[in-house]
Amino acid sequence: MRQSWAVNDLIGFVVNSVRTAPADDAPFHHLRFERVFPDDFYGEMLEAMPVAEDYRAMSGKSKMGSSRPDGKPTRAKIDLFPEYIRHLPPRKRAVWDVASRVLRSKEVESAFVQRLAPGLQRRFGGNFQKVQMYPVPILTRDIPGYRIFKHTDSLWKGITVQFYLPPDNSTPHIGTIFHEVLPTGRKPKKAQMPFSPNTGYAFAVADNTWHSADPVGPEVKTRDSILLTYFVDAGSWRFLRNRGRRIGNLLLNELRNLKHN
Question: Does residue 2 form part of some domain?
């Protein structure tokens, strides 16, 4: 790990990336990122990519429509919390530990809340800045056969962020698609985020944030990204649910590692 990129330095860089990201209101308010991380740290993340055996199958909406005829899951993940990445080799663990701490920082969260104010205010009202959030960063890997149909994220979530991690710009066509909602109820494609190195998007989750992903074709080896979800953490039930899910995922991860050892 380059000493020049300490956690606080990286937090400052990502905060600036969020603050300066272009915003667009079509088809709903969102941010587009063109350089999320410093180039050298982005290179370190690519070099520290886990191997396939380090991931476990994704569940929930993210697996909808993504099964293959051979039964192999087409989306897998690694939760970027210390208790999950501890099984990685030391050098890889060091890189993802730093990334985790940056993405879970209050400074990055505050930057997202400020920049996504139009969407958050539409959903939560004028006191949106007081709504507590619980950040959950995960490293995801999609393989050929993966797709996800048009959907809006669960309202358990407050903010959805995705950072793309390809090694080059050869597959921009597999980025996330945003859909507008017509008066007839149809939801045609309105915009698409290019799947390019060190880029991404963010939006405040609402009932109008329809998005999808076209099938990943055989020309793609892996579709790697970071999903950073801010779950609404207001009230005792959500507070307990968010931490209970983290514990439950930890148990599943430990069982998977026991089977592989």
Answer: no
